[in-house]
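Please review this one.

:::
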Amino acid sequence: MIVSTPAPPSFRLRPAAPDSGGTGGTWRCLARRGMLHSECEAFEQLWLAPGATWTHEPAHGTEAALYAVAGSASVHTEAATGPGADDGGGAAEERTLDAGGALLVGARAAVRVTAGAEGLDLLAVRVLPADVVSRLPARVPELPAREQTPIFRPPIDGGH
């Protein structure tokens, strides 16, 4: 078992109301694209104080998977816009996100998450959308020859 003390947050978010005197929450980037071998932009931990918000705009250029670790929130979504968006005339929606719940956010969606009365502890994984990834060169990790073992060595012609 690994036990550690949480590090101080990387960034403190603004309060929901400027005159509240409190904090809007904290944001910590756990991993960023240069640290990961994938199309993952970022892996983030957010704690939103009651009434504080987190937003995702189409201009961000990423998709997001959100996981509510603790607390609850209301989620307001606008219809997707831009190229590739469903032109079915989708209307805005309001939903609830409770602890243990997940939310997938498309690249062209505008979403606002507002923390409930107890606040919200949220994990966010931001990734590049498929239309961007499909234009990237293949990225396959490979060990140097001296570090390869039979388990990780790619097969040679003839299956050896």
Observations:
- The mean pLDDT is 77.
- The helical segments are 130-133.
